[in-house]
Fold each of these.
Amino acid sequence: MQILMLSLRDLLSTRFLKFSLLPLLVSLVIFTVLSYFAFSILLDYFNTFFSVKPDSFLAWFYALSIVQFIIHALSFLLAGFVTVFASVFFAIFIVSFLTPFIVKEINAKHYGHIIENEVSNFLVMKDLLKIFVKFIAFLLLALLLLFLPFINLFIFYFVFYYLFHQLLLLDVASCAFSKDEYKNFWAKNSPFEFKFSTLCFYLIASVPFLGLFLPVFFVIFLTHLSYQRILNLSPKA
């Protein structure tokens, strides 16, 4: 609870609110464009699918108002599902460029942790490659379950959670820790608090607009969690 309140106070400060607005504004533009094109593509697909002889049963069925409503609703929901997740990951991508500044500000304000040997870009890129290789493997495995009702949605949801979790931790850990601290952190499975936190963030990020505004908060919270739970540092009074 202490970390949550500390993170919220930091987020609501003028400096961090400015950081939050950048991914929000950029992602809103991307969100609008993606929604429009995704909806159009899905609608064109359904129109093509039902493009048959005018006197056929499918043509009559497609002409029904309720069917038209269902198709438009499905197109909207599927387009929304795709664009929400695309926008969230795009927001995380934008925030990754701000993370060094966010972590530096949190460290200077609350902890004063001295990093003598910084994590190299090569090491980060190597770990990033490992994450994407594992993600692709999980994604291919999930594709085998694509046609199983209900299970397919959940399995894809958790496959993308893996990517979300790993990218956030990599982003924060590479900025908050020294090289040795970073290696020790990744040598072990991330503690339950980190998994639970990123799962909560993932669920929040699934809500339209919250996922666009709160990535900066996610970084702030995980930075505090890293310093207090991994390095056992206490914030300044």
Amino acid sequence: MTSIDLNSDLGENVPDRVVSDDESMLRLVTSANVACGFHAGSPEGIRSTLESAVAGGVVIGAHPGYRDYENFGRTKVEIDSATLQAHVEYQLGAVIGLAAAVGGTVAYVKPHGALYNTIARDERQSKDVVAAIRAIDPNLVLLGLAGGVVLEVAERAGLQIAAEAFADRAYQPDGQLVSRTEAGSVLHDPVAVAERMVRLAGEGVIRAIDGTDVPVSAQSICVHGDSPGSVAMAAETKRMLQDAGITIAPFAGV
């Protein structure tokens, strides 16, 4: 692999719940997954992040989630298909509109949190999310977990897809993410995180929590904006990848 994207989940701050340093992350990443208001963020905060992304030449993605603001979108919601599709369509419309207002465009969609993890396994909710994307703009790229069900569903439906790996999350031997409820699920050491991503880019594997190597083919790497030490992890990951001869470049919108 000679090129890979670096992304982060941003636009999630409100005055009483500041979780990320968006300005610093936007100087490091090539793609920004911008919250749509259901799990985090406010219209004015989301707009500000979008404006900064446009100014910095960072590719914009919409980051819709369950309507679960209290739990930051990290609790699975049992929801019928019509409602889930409408909720995703509503969120995409909001961010597409705000992006247009600041001179930007949305190039891709990366679902958030519990919705992201659910559609990595659940075909029915995957179909609902894909239907929403197709209804709003079938040219949007879907970014999802490498090996996830939703990528298969999206590709069958004619969407462009991209696979993602996580720099700061532990992996199960089957390629799924370790639940945030388990110890060691979120990683914080910038050097260890960066070394994992250099192996991903160079060898196509990530070390799982049990010590085995999991094959992972990904076009984008995520460092969560709300993880403690996220800016340091993103900076070290970018530096080590570039030192290894890997170009950091967006997967969409170019």
Amino acid sequence: MAPYMRLRQICLVAPQLAPVVSDIAEIMGLTVCYRDGNVAKYGLENALLPVDTILLEVVAPFKDGTTAGRFIEKTGGRGGYMAIFCCNDPDERGRNANALGVRTANVIDHAPYHGVQLHPRDCRAAFIEFNHTEGSDDILGPYPPAGPDWQRCIRKDVTQALAGVEMQSPDPQGLAEHWGKIIGVAPSGAELKLPNATFRFVKGASEIMSALEFRVTDIAQVLHAARAKGHAVAGNEFLLGGVTFRVS
């Protein structure tokens, strides 16, 4: 199988799913495709919404002592939680990360799905996960974490794509190079360009996944919907689910 690396999913974390999930759905014109009972063993509940072929997930802890709960406490709820990539060989990417001093935090084996999660402290800014689903090399193929019919929930009338992810760091170039080595994509300046999304690294006080950049059909309509939900809009962006939603 030819090597490939694509952004598959972005995971945000919130103290509760409501109203974050319903606000995302209504403002961005997206549909929840799945709520995964498998995350309950981690003390979490979740909802996933497809943005074209990238999944946007929100998780919320329902008991004390979860990793997600600690993340909220540590960050004050600011910053995205996970960047999840699909690739041809997650184990190889995991071994490569280990050789860089990045520890494996968790391995998920639910055939035909296999995922390798790396330790967020070693990744810096957010969790990184690599996964592969047997027989799903078609970008519209099976992806068990998103449920059996996720493709049917893709809507493009309002939001067309999740085009970019902004990462903040006091040393953006250093973080870009670090993530580039983990992911196996050489940075172009302070950017990592994947076939379906670009990670941009910018100067900031702390290391976080700070913004998601969406291509939409009508910028004014989305910003109006955000205001109507009580979100403060500045320019072409607003804060939701711990990250800045930026539309163009």
Amino acid sequence: MKLGSKIYLVTIFAILYIPLIYLTYYSFNAGKTMINFDGFSLVHYTELFKNSRMLIIVINTVVVALLCGLFSAIFGTLGALGIYSLKSKKRRNSYLVGNNILIISPDVIIGCSFLLMFTFISKQFGIDNIQGFWSVLLSHIAFSIPIVVLMVLPKLYEMPHSIVNAAIDLGANYKQVLSQIVIPYITPGIMAGFFMGLTYSLDDFAVTFFVTGNGFQTLSVEIYSMARQGISLQINALSTVLSVFVVVAVLIYYILNTSKLKREVK
């Protein structure tokens, strides 16, 4: 690797990781600000784990993210199968354009649209407190589905037609072809879509800010509210805990994937 490439990689990783290291460092500060380090302490972690409201918000966020990943993977896969099955190239491209428009649309526009929709439903059908868990979940599923479609479609196009034709020639019906050939082949795309939906849900602020109600909060909105009231090192502690969780999850995935590849080679 050339020296210029090494310098470029080091610079990129420094830009990405130095803020996280800085944030983690001050999460152990005995003081209450990130101006001076007054000594090592776990006081902010203790306060975080005693904060029952914050723990409930973390659970809310994780539950919404998992359900979002699951349902967006299901509906996104069905959407990808529907687009793939279209014989007309013009119609297929039209659906893809519509799908891609939802991806590149600004989050503020999407959030406003969902807010107007839920407000209309509330007034039209007399449903009180419609903005809460269900509004956040439905919104997250809706903006994650187009991402899953883009994750699954390439796997469908990579799938050799000869496999499907052979199964049909051997007497397999549509259900058998779908469950035993198509779904197993596109599973990596489905899993990628699941994790993308989960990540987008955990990460989203703009849409959630518009559709959440007074009785329901997610981490992104709560951290924003806390930051507006002044810097609290509980945010640092929470961010550190989440970062460690993500690193452990990635390492477990890497170890399992490596073990699987080694077994396949043997």
